[in-house]
């Protein structure tokens, strides 16, 4: 998951540098007034999103498999804990039910 995030961040930074260069040279228009920095970041986000979607498809699939495995493992652990609690409750109820009969 960290690898995917770092790769996505790298693509964004690369697009940010390219877009900044294109705005600086005048190929893309500058933002209005003091909004030039926000304009460059917005353009970089718009350009990097589809690039990341296509280029990082395999890495995104690997990351999603890891997330699914982690969720399944957590569900199994939770179910194991529930069954242990149920057994403890059953044993406690059985012990309480047997104690009055012995008196």
Model description:
The protein starts with a helix and ends with a helix. It has helices at residues 2-25, 36-55, 57-102. The chain contains three helices and no strands.
What's this model, at a glance?
With 103 residues, this protein is an all-alpha fold. The chain has helices at residues 2-25, 36-55, 57-102. Residues 99-103 have low confidence and may be disordered.
Structural class: mainly alpha
The unreliable regions are: 99-103
Helix content: over 70%
- The topology string of helices and strands comes to HHH
User: Radius of gyration, Cα only, in angstroms?
Assistant: 28 Å
Query: Average pLDDT across residues?
Result: 84
Distance between the termini: 61 Å
DSSP, total strands: 0
| Count of discrete alpha- or pi-helical segments spanning 4 or more residues | 3
Report the sheet-strand fraction.
under 5%
What is the 3D shape? elongated
Major β-sheet profile: none
Pick out its properties.
3 helices, mainly alpha, elongated, disordered C terminus, 103 residues
